[in-house]
Each structure stands twice: as C-alpha cells, then as structure tokens.
Amino acid sequence: MEVFNQELSIVTLRQDSAANGNRKFLFFRPENFPQDSLYMLPVDSVFLKQLFNRTKLIVGSGLVAYHFKPKSILAYLYRVRFWQAGPIRINPLGLLNPFIRKKSQSEVIVWDKTPERRNHYGFLSWSNLGSYPIIVGRVFFPLETKDEYFAMDIYYDLRDLFRWNFMTQVLLVLIGVFFLLNSLLIRRMIKFGSQINRLIVDKFALLRKGVRAIASGNLDYHVEMKGEDEFGEFADHFNLMSKELKRFMNEAREKERLDQELKIAHQVQLKMLPETLPEIKGYQLAADLTTANEVGGDFYDIFALDNKRYLIAVGDVSGKGMSAAFYMAQFISLLRYSTTFILDIKKLAVRLNEYLTEHVFDSNIFVTAVIGILDISSNEFKFVRAGHSFPVLIAGKDEPTLEEIQSNGIGLGMTRSKQVLRQKLELTTVLLNPGDRLILYTDGFTEAAKKASADEEGQKIIYGEARFFEQLKKCSAYEPAKIIAFLKEDIEQFYAGAQRFDDQTIVVLKKD
C-alpha cells in the first residue's frame, strides 16, 4: 500500500538542441524524503515503447484504487485465472464489486477527471464521488494474505453522456457506424425484396400464360416452373389438371360438346375447392357446394393466413359452362397467392378487379363475392361485398335474431375505374360474440327456380328469400353442419326431382 502514497509523474522536457529532441523524465519522492527533494530518472523512448506497445486502452471518466477481500463464492471466482498468467489479472466480474459495500476514505484512492478533485484525492471516497459510476475495467493482483487483493477500477460517469468530451465523441462515432451499417442493411433488404417481388411477378406471368393456353383449348401446354415452393406445387397441380382435362376430352369425344364442357367444368370446380377445412380455435366451420347440371362457377375458399387470421371467401362467376369453371379456377388461384403479400381486403379486391378487366376478354364475365378475414384474436370478421348476396348474422341469444349485414359493393370485372371501385366497395366489420352464427351463401338458394308444370312454358316457381330466411330461423340454434343439411333438404323438397339451373354454395361459421 505504501507505493500508492508516493507521488509519481512523467513529464516531457523540451530542449533547444534539435539533436536531443524531446526527452521524458520520471519524477518521484518517497515519504521519508524532504519536501524539497525529488528523484529524477530519465526514461528512454525505447523503454516506453516496449512498456506500452501491448497496453490495452480502456476509456473512462476516472480511476479508483483500493484494497478488497471478496467473500463467499466471489472468492473462488477471483481465483480463476481464465486465459491469464502471472499475478496481475483482469477480472471479468468487475461490475459485481465495489458496489456491494461502501468503501471508507482510508481504503480508496481516487483519480478523478476533474483537476480540482484530483488535487484533493485524500478526501475522496466512493460515498462522495458525486457521480453515477459504472465500472468499465478492472486490473487487480493478489496480496500476501489469502483472498486479499489490490484493485484499480476505471469507472465511467453516466453524466458524461450529456457532456461534450472524448467519451461522448466515441459514442457518437459508434452511433454513426451503427446507422451506417443499418442503412446498408436496409438497402440490401430492399434489393432482396425487389428480387423476390420480381420472382413472384414472373411466376404469376407463367401461371397466367398457362391459364390462357388451357382456356384456349391447348391441353398439351405444360407450365415449366422450377423450385419447391407453393408456386411449383401449384404448377404441378396445374399440369396435372391439364392432363386430366385432356383425358376427359378424349373419353367424351363422341358426346355432345355441351355435355363435355359441363363435365370438365364440374371436375375442375371440385378440384379447386379445399379438400379439408381448417380447424379454427374457438369456432366451428362447415361449407358445401352443390353443383347443378349447368355449372355456374360457384366457389368458396377458406385457409389460414397465419395462426390468428383466416381468409373466408364465397363467390359466383357469371356465365355458364366451361368458361365459367375456368375463370372460377383462375380467380381462386389469384385469391390464394395474392393474400400472401396483400392483407388489405379492399386493396386485394381492387387488384383482382384490375386483373379481370385487363386479362378477361369476355365482357360478360364478372365475379360477385364476399371476401373477408376472420381475426380470432379480436373475434372480428372484416369483409368487402363485391355485388354478392348480403351475409346473414344469427345472434346467439335466447331468442336468435336474423340480420342481413348491409354493405355497399359492386361486382369485380364490371368497371375498369379503380376510383369507382374504391368508392363502391365498403369495408365492413362484424364482431362475433359467443353463440353467433355467420352465414355466407350464393344466390343459388334464394333464386332457385323450377317450372310450374310440364305443360306451361316460361312459368316458374321461385324459392325466394322469404322461404330461405324462414328455414334459417327454424335451424338457427343448430350446429353449422346441421344448418347446411337442413337447408339442403328443404331445397331438395322444393325441386322434387326437377332439373337444377344453378349451383348452391354456403359457408356457416359459429363462435363457440
């Protein structure tokens, strides 16, 4: 401890002789020397270079030296040498001590950054440093007594964050480097995103080309798409579908063209529907599509966007026959892969409308649909109604009530104006409470019709909305699958074996 009561300093003496240059001297005075006596020892530059060439610099606000004796488990940790050899070591646990206990003035020597405080170090201690210190480095060596050490801590005053000094400059440089690296990373990510977007657009173009080729009758067309992602899987299904269509065409060559179209459209329609419905936590779900002899292009699609959101869509493509089935398949494919990148329902509808108006050459083709996203975290169903039948909400009360959810909308493919479509489409939100049932259906139910009699031409009996809502009230307390079965049975009784003229599609969602 005595060595720290001596005064030491290194100074530089500038001499007139250019040959001698600048020389450095070490001045020191032991305690037993008179006040007017000093040792002066010249320090060679080679010695200083060898002394400091391997020195590790630690930046801080001040220096504290003190004697300490760790207790308990810390004593064992201080014995560990890690990668160091020799008595002088660096402690990686410097932050644990000296804040464990307060040091007294007799144990602590403080070299503060402020000159006034350095001149009176004998009166300074941890209790009156007047700072908010964090230890940024510690060098210590053991004394003769077991588990006793002498340490020198370099501390950093948190108040220096608000002062212009070397440490602040270092922090500003580090912040600048961080933002520079961050900006480079962002640019890299933007470039990467652009590449992904270009890849997606190119794959959509290949699929669109394949749809056009198949729709034009070229059943030998094969979509070449590399990769094992969803696009590659869809291309395989598309190629398989084209092969199946060609096989059906060969089998039905001797039949009339209309019957052949209806059969192919029927097969395509069933293949494009979901094989199984997703299991939605807290909800029950059922869906059904019953095709007529003359296919009208009905569809539904339900799939998960993530673990909390699910897309539910029910729609109808105008027109009849094979063309309606093909455009239904095209619409479902666009719907499934567009939602991977567009979660804004209204924006999605605008994109689908833009595709239909630009790439569908039959002006009589348009799509009516209800497209929505169910968020199970908020129990909200947000949807747009593109000229389709209004959804029906059955409130889960003691006496269930039926309500048509009014929402403005226009069919997709009926206008080329984005502005008009955005004005016509209304984003509507439905909050589902426990016991509520949401019904989405096509007009194949309400507009179901049959001939009044075999002798009368042009006279038809309409099923109608009144009967449909009356049957819904009767089965309003049923589970989704039973509601669908009840409605289908009543439709069968209405037709009584008569020829159907339209598909019937329905989706029932119940909140548990």
In CATH, what is the homologous superfamily of the largest domain? PPM-type phosphatase domain
* Poorly predicted runs of 5 or more residues: 1-20, 96-107, 117-128
- In CATH, the topology of the largest domain is named Phosphatase 2c, domain 1
Give the biggest beta sheet.
5 strands, antiparallel
Please give the radius of gyration in angstroms.
41 Å
Number of DSSP strands? 20
Q: Number of folding domains?
A: 3
Strand percent estimate: 15-25%
The tally of helices reads: 12
* Average pLDDT, all residues: 76
CATH architecture of the largest domain: 4-Layer Sandwich
Distance from first to last alpha carbon: 77 Å
Q: What sort of overall outline do the alpha carbons produce when their principal axes are compared? A: elongated
Structural class: alpha+beta
Tell me the name of the CATH class of the largest domain: Alpha Beta
Going across the major beta sheet, what is the strand order? 5-7-8-4-6
Helix content class: 25-40%
Short description, anyone?
With 512 residues, this protein is an alpha+beta fold.
Describe the overall structure.
The protein is α+β, with helices and mostly antiparallel strands and 512 residues long. It has 3 domains: 2-161, no CATH class; 164-251, no CATH class; 276-511, PPM-type phosphatase domain (Phosphatase 2c, domain 1, 4-Layer Sandwich), CATH 3.60.40.10. It is 35% helix and 24% strand. The chain has a 5-stranded antiparallel beta sheet with strand order 5-7-8-4-6, with no helix packed on it. It has a 5-stranded antiparallel beta sheet with strand order 9-20-17-14-15. A 5-stranded antiparallel beta sheet has the order 10-11-12-13-16. A hairpin with a 6-residue loop joins strand 7 (133-142) and strand 8. Helix 4 (166-215) runs parallel beside helix 5 (230-251), helix 5 (230-251) packs antiparallel against helix 6 and helix 6 (257-272) packs parallel to helix 7. The radius of gyration is 41 Å and the shape is elongated.
